[in-house]
Specification:
6% strand
Length: 143
C-alpha cells in the first residue's frame, strides 16, 4: 500500500507527521485495504492501488457533498469522527509531511477537479477549501 509505505517507510524529520496525520493515514490505509478486499475476489493478476490518491480524491468530493450523500461518503471512506474542517487540515498536514520526507524521495501530488461548471455551479467556499488544503484547482470540463 503506497500510503503505508510513504508514511511508515520514510525517515521523516522529527515531528513532521503530527498525530492527526497519522490517524488520517491509518484511516486512508483502512479504506484502501477495504477497497482492495472488495476487488480481490474478481481480480486476475496483480493489483496496485494508492490508498492516499483514492482517499484524497474522494475526501475532496466529500467536502462538497451535503446531507445523506456526505454521510454515505464518510461511511464508505471510514472517516469515523473526522469531519471538515479538521479533515481538510489533517489532509494538508499529511500532504506537507509526505512531499519532502527525504532528499532521496520525490513525491508530487497533483489535485484538480474537472467539472461542467455551467450545469453544476460550485460554491466559492468549496473552491477556496480545495485550493487552500489540497492545492486543487477547479477546471471547466468541455466534453
Amino acid at each position: 500500500m503506497l500510503c503505508a509505505l510513504a508514511v511508515q517507510g520514510c525517515s521523516l524529520p522529527a515531528g513532521a507527521l503530527v498525530a492527526q496525520s497519522r490517524t488520517l493515514a491509518a484511516t486512508d490505509n483502512a479504506f484502501g485495504l477495504a477497497l482492495l478486499n472488495i476487488r480481490m475476489p474478481s481480480a486476475g493478476g496483480n493489483i496496485a492501488i494508492s490508498p492516499l490518491s483514492l482517499a484524497l480524491a474522494l475526501q475532496i468530493v466529500h467536502g462538497g457533498a451535503a446531507g445523506t450523500a456526505q454521510q454515505a461518503m464518510a461511511d464508505a471512506l471510514q472517516l469515523g469522527a473526522l469531519r471538515n474542517p479538521r479533515l481538510n487540515e489533517d489532509n494538508a498536514a499529511l500532504q506537507a509531511a509526505l512531499l519532502n520526507p527525504d532528499p532521496q524521495v520525490q513525491l508530487t501530488v497533483a489535485n484538480s477537479l474537472w467539472m461542467h461548471l455551467a450545469e453544476n455551479p460550485v460554491l466559492p467556499a468549496f473552491i477556496q477549501a480545495d485550493q487552500t488544503y489540497y492545492g486543487a484547482a477547479i477546471q471547466a470540463a468541455t466534453a
